[in-house]
Amino acid sequence: MSVQQREIGRKTLLEEIRKSARIPRIDLSEKTGISRATVTTITADLLREGLIEEVSDDSPSKDARRGRPRVDLQIRGAARLIAGAKISSKAVSLVLLDFSGHQLADLEVEIEKPVFDSEELAEVLKAACDQLARDAGFKLLDLSGLGVGIAGIVDAPRGFVHWSPSLNARNVELSEDLGVRLGVPVYVDNDANLVALAEKYFGLGRGHTDFIVVTIESGVGMGIVIGDELYRGTRGCGAEFGHTKVHLEGAMCRCGQRGCLEAYVADYALLREATFAGGESVEQDVEDLLTAARDGAGVARSIVERAGRMFAMGLANIVNIFDPELIILSGEQMRFDHLYAEEVIEAMRRSIVQVDKAPPEVKIHKWGDQMWAMGAAAYALDMIAEQAAIGADTDAA
Amino acid sequence: MSVQQREIGRKTLLEEIRKSARIPRIDLSEKTGISRATVTTITADLLREGLIEEVSDDSPSKDARRGRPRVDLQIRGAARLIAGAKISSKAVSLVLLDFSGHQLADLEVEIEKPVFDSEELAEVLKAACDQLARDAGFKLLDLSGLGVGIAGIVDAPRGFVHWSPSLNARNVELSEDLGVRLGVPVYVDNDANLVALAEKYFGLGRGHTDFIVVTIESGVGMGIVIGDELYRGTRGCGAEFGHTKVHLEGAMCRCGQRGCLEAYVADYALLREATFAGGESVEQDVEDLLTAARDGAGVARSIVERAGRMFAMGLANIVNIFDPELIILSGEQMRFDHLYAEEVIEAMRRSIVQVDKAPPEVKIHKWGDQMWAMGAAAYALDMIAEQAAIGADTDAA
Predict the structure, then answer these.
(1) Cβ-contact A226, A238 below 8 angstroms
(2) Nearest to A163 among B210, B310, B355 (CB)
(3) Does residue A256 share a domain with residue A299?
């Protein structure tokens, strides 16, 4: 085997073992097209390095009845320790996973302010990761890596943040800045991308190779899974949804442009309209506005319904472009029910190109920041597994 | 080697040989990770089947100086004969390629009406392909396949047309219907997808693995190349651009929905506005309208400029989603200059998410139906090469 062949073989086999909960060597050969001899050689290496382990199948399988217990291979959980963190405006949520993706601990840390420089953010994350690791009987430097999900425009392959509402500067080499200060490799991505990863590994995306996740928080985000892989756009920071335009020269957006979807559906956009609606008493708080709309008040209802129609239109455009079989609307709070409403989904269905096939299935997944952190950890786990496969990392837990 | 291994190996090696103009066996092994012994075995099969051929390198390379002329492998052009056809409202354009993609003949046939049933379309294509083959000294049944580009909503993997302006029925099994009547395998796809393939193999997309093609004819189409592959959406018929919505409850579109991009930029949309513009003399013909707009007339200019702004907004949304490094605006006619205009491109650049990196490069490619036909042939060529690789076709030319 040449060096290249060995490297490709290791990556392919480790990926296949990760995908399968447990798998015998012969199936590895069949599924990957790699010869049995090569599978034996490479898996021996992976076993010796402690990345995988053998496990015998106690079920009464055919082999067992012939007296030969089947031996499967599986990922060795203890091989690596991975953390994931989601940064929101009020807290940092963290989870700790082992190399097989099992959760060992979780943690939520309140933060004192919503905007940081990268040094301050490193301090917060360092303390939080240290605590997280200790909760599971480890220490910070036992971590093989930390995945970080952050809102904004992120070039994930470079770990570079063009802009984030959580950072006080543009153009931050965030993965590098955090990595140096924590002493642990850090992998940063847009938080909506990481929700898509979380859905893929742990949520409603399991068993689907292609789906779209739309996240609804204070902003609107999108994550795209194509061919079982997260798709970030051709230069690393596409999948932008909240600032796609739904109205030519429309409402002013916080980003400084006009007509962005967020300028119609974000909290500030709803309140802005409510504030200046004359003649009628309108609530100054989003919760109150939504309640008023549900109770049928004219102005409040008009504001909230338009948000829904704009959201449906944006969603229909995504469907026309990607023709997905599944869209997951993923958000933390029950209070976004007006965007999850059946009339919104129905308006989307009416606005897509009409053909005689089923419109995409829409699933609604309400979950908390902890699951965003799971996505961040899953991203770091993917990167670390890839490093381990090519033997580029040295730190085994 | 197992059957699976052999099949994967054949596909990988034939693809690699197709990608390289010519390549020595040792490079094949290096690039694919397939062992030299397996490369030798499989390429011997491919040589015996006449799919590839050996060609000796006459250049004074290192090997040659050591007295051993280097032997490369290349695709054997004569192995297969492939046609491509683009169906427009006035003509069918065709090209004939050999297995290595070299053009052997071309043909343009006027058609008597713009809308057909699939039987009539088969008659037209059969006569045209017969003529095309004879022009190059072959006959119809020498064709290994025919690629067909048609406007509308096409599920390419199934060869199924949900809807096309060229067909008088919805839900047509067009690949099968045509294939049976021509006696040759037929591969149908949306025409804009095939323009993207043509750009990839023969046009401005060469050397790019990721780019977006937007086609401008009477409608607006899109083709997406991601990771060196045409991306058709997760269920085969995405990449819809002309009927994405640019205005909530906006102008009525020919498709029956409101606010589609085409309802603002298509010929009929421009004329519709001109017809009802009161008080000023406005031309009733698109060419005249565009001329009037260029000459500065108020209403005409207002109509054409809004079309440009809507087009820019739609384009900006595509950029936000795909973050492409290259967008190719591909259209036949000079008369769409108002959509290719620098102020339209500039408006797109201003409407995308603003980060400190270069906006996508926009290239304008004006070409004729012949190149759309090249795309159709390229699609058939890809499918036929895949069939040949797994030994699933039997007809060698």
Answers:
(1) no
(2) B355
(3) yes
CATH of the domain at A14: 1.10.10.10
Cβ contact, residue pair B246, A243, below 8 Å: no
Give me the pLDDT at residue A397, please: 40
Same structural domain, B48 and B102: no
**Which of A55-69, A114-128, A259-273, B177-191 bottoms out in mean pLDDT, i.e. has the lowest?**
A55-69
Number of C-beta neighbours around residue A372 at 10 A: 27
Complex ipTM over 0.90: no
Q: Select from B54, B75, B96 the last residue of a domain.
A: B75
Residues A376 and A356 in one domain: no
Which contiguous run of DSSP H or E holds residue B86?
Answer: strand B81-87
The answer to whether A35 touches A5, Cβ cutoff 8 Å, is no
CB of B257 within 8 Å of any CB in chain A? Answer: yes
What are the tens digits of pLDDT across the range A146-195? 999 999 999 999 999 999 989 999 999 999 999 999 999 999 999 999 99
| Residue range(s) defining the domain that contains residue B355 | 242-324+333-366
Residue of B nearest to A32 (CA): B5
Flag whether A210 is in a domain.
no
Spell out which residues of chain A touch residue B351, defining contact as CB-CB under 8 Å.
245, 257
Q: B313: which chain A residues are within 8 Å (Cβ-Cβ)?
A: 245, 248, 259
B397 vs A: CB within 8 A: no
Task: Answer whether B356 sits within 8 Å of A240, measured CB to CB.
Answer: no
Instruction: Please indicate whether, in this complex, the C-beta atoms of A232 and B323 are within 8 angstroms of each other.
Output: yes
Give the distance from CA A370 to its chain's centroid: 11
Q: Which residues pair with B97 in a beta bridge?
A: B82, B103
Q: Which residue, among A323, A327, A361, would best test binding to B if mutated, counting the most B CBs under 10 Å from its CB?
A: A323
| Residues of A with Cβ-Cβ distance to B169 under 8 angstroms | none
* CA–CA gap between residue A145 and residue A16 (Å, rounded): 22
A272/chain B closest Cα distance in angstroms: 20
Same domain membership, residue B145 and residue B39: no
The reply to whether A235 touches chain B by the CB within 8 Å rule is yes
Instruction: Tell me whether residues B248 and A247 touch, CB distance under 8 A.
Output: yes
Residues B31 and B105 in one domain: no
End position of a domain, from candidates A75, A101, A118: A75
Task: Please list every residue in chain A whose beta carbon sits closer than 8 Å to the beta carbon of residue B233.
Answer: 321-324
Which among A249, A230, A233, A250 is positioned nearest to A241, based on CA atoms? A233
Our count of domains for chain A comes to 3
Q: Are residues A86 and A133 in the same domain?
A: yes
**A117 and A156 fall within a common domain:** yes
In whole angstroms, give the CA distance from residue B84 to residue B95. 5
Structure tokens at A74: 């599986």
The A91-98 sheet, strands edge to edge = A103-110, A91-98, A81-87, A145-150, A186-190
Q: What is the largest CA-CA distance in chain B?
A: 85
Given B2, B8, B243, which is nearest A353 (Cβ)? Answer: B243
In whole angstroms, give the CA distance from residue A161 to residue A237: 10
- Whole-prediction pTM value? 0.86
Please check whether residue B231 lies inside any domain of the structure.
Answer: no
Is the CB of B235 less than 8 angstroms away from the CB of A323? Answer: yes
**Same domain membership, residue A186 and residue A110:** yes
- Using CA coordinates, name the residue in chain B closest to A4: B33
Residue B216 burial (CB < 10 Å; 0-12/13-18/19+)? buried
Domain annotation covers residue A395: no
What is the CATH number for A359? 3.30.420.40
Q: Quickly count helices (H) and strands (E) in chain B.
A: 14, 15
Confirm whether B397 is domain-assigned: no
